[in-house]
Amino acid sequence: MVRTVKSVSNQVINIAVRCGIGLGFWVLLSFLGGHAVFAQGPTAPASTATVQERLDSLEKKMAAPSIWKTLGFQASGFVDVAYTHNLNNPSTNLNQLHVYDTDANSFSVHMVQIMLERPADGAGSGMDRFGFRTRLNFGLDARVTRARTNSAPGTSGHELDFQEAYSEYIAPVGNGLKIQAGKINTLIGYEVINSFENPNFSRSFMFGLGQAFTTTGVRLSYSFNPFVSASIGVINGWDNVTDNNKSKSFEWLLALIPHEKLGMSFYGSYGAEQSNNQGTAPASTGADPTAKRTVAGATMTIKATDQDTIVFEPYYVNEGNVSAVKQSKNGRWNGLAGYLTHDFTDQWSARFRGEIFEDAGGVRTCTGTFGSAGGTNTCAGATTTVAATPVAQTLWENTFTLQYKPFPSLITRTEFRYDKSDKNVFLSGNRMVNNQETLSFQIIYLF
Fold first, then answer.
1. Which residue, among 374, 80, 355, 86, has the nearest Cα to 201 in the 3D structure?
2. 47 Cβ partners below 8 Å, 6+ apart?
């Protein structure tokens, strides 16, 4: 009886084992059905990639954005287009003594900028403290932002330029000493190259004609506390990627915030800026590499109300042995600008700029040329091949700008500007006059 029970038990076990094996095989086939070749539809092609190749491909897809994010890379940019109408209808189709918005009665693609950067992090360690920035500009404004020599803006028709290209490191010294090396936006002046970062579309005479745009060299910056910071740099000179003489210039900036509604900055530079010409040359050639240029200026920003911001900027420059119209050969240019911005809402704002700019030595105005450079900084009296005779003059202008931002990434502006000089340096048709009026419309898209 026992043997019979055992025999029956063994048979039951054998049947269970066989059923288990069969069930397991069926489950395995079901699991592999989507991957086995013979389980695919008749039209599905067989994959030739190995499992490892597929894993590698998937890994690359997953790793790319994480590496970009881990390294701290940031990309951004903008597109800036505008139309400017000159009410004087000058025969040259040029806005006299303007530097960026030079084309009259014309639609213009002013700038397409792509910026790639990795900001240095002073709170980090190791590679976190290293960073860089590059700004690549395309368009008409690149003729001006490109590095140039001394005071000849737009001497090339090239419309491609690295506005900035520098590396930086925050050394673990005190609150963090920032060290930057390369081509950097200047410390001089309130206005900057990118139009949308200024209150108005057009640039002031003071910035366009009398200040540096970029500097190339080494700059040290340090924040002593939230209210006091300073920068100092050793540079090739104004807008010179490669030095045009045998000496270096110095730049500096001291920024103070004495009150939450008041900010002040004091800036300047000093050094030889004229081209080396095998020794001292006559002043009429504008090439005395021993002559020094001294710059001193300041900006004061007042937050008068929650809706109103006021800015003042006095500015002074003196340079030796550079003027061809003054007996002393001394070149001096100086100015005073004031800005008022009133924000009606987050979308609507009105901006006003008023300035006076004196070119006492005639070394900063009427120095432009026609042709591929677009006629930047030209005056009435210039021909198609020769710039106008240098003019010692005093300029002033009033600019009214209405800005509307339908979206945070979209800026639209309408601007009216009135220019005046104590000399007849503007054109009304073919006639030389002392004033000029322009009306501009601008659209900027940020991405």
1. 80
2. none
Q: Which residue has the tokens 């579309």?
A: 201
**286 contact partners, CB below 8 Å, separation of at least 6:** 150, 274, 275, 322, 324, 363
Can you read off the two tokens belonging to residue 50? 């190995």
DSSP letters, 327-364, are TT--EEEEEEEEEEEEESSSSEEEEEEEEEEEETTS-S
pLDDT band at 37 (very low <50, low <70, confident <90, very high): very low
Q: How far is CA 116 from CA 77, 186, 214, 444, in A?
A: 9, 19, 18, 19
Query: Looking at the predicted structure, is the pLDDT value of residue 112 above 90?
Result: yes
Whole-structure pTM over 0.90, yes or no? Answer: no
Of 277, 412, 426, residue with least CA distance to 348: 412
Across the range 373-396, mean pLDDT stands at: 78
Q: Are 75 and 115 in contact (CB under 8 A)?
A: yes
Higher pLDDT, 328 or 86: 86
Would you give the end-to-end CA distance of the chain in angstroms?
89
- Tallying the residues shown for the chain, one arrives at 447
Element (H, E) at 184: strand 177-185
Q: What is the average pLDDT across 310-337?
A: 92
Q: Average the pLDDT over each of 60-64, 223-227, 277-281 and give the range with the smallest value.
A: 277-281
Sign of the CA dihedral with 35 first, then 41, 42, and 45 last: negative
pLDDT number for residue 88: 97
Domains of the chain: 78-446 (2.40.160.10)
Query: How many Å apart are CA 136 and CA 116, to the nearest integer?
Result: 9
Q: Please state, for a pLDDT cut of 90, what percent of the chain lies above it.
A: 64
Closest CA to 240 of 330, 132, 167, 152: 152
Q: Is 210 helix (H, G, I), strand (E, B) or coil?
A: helix
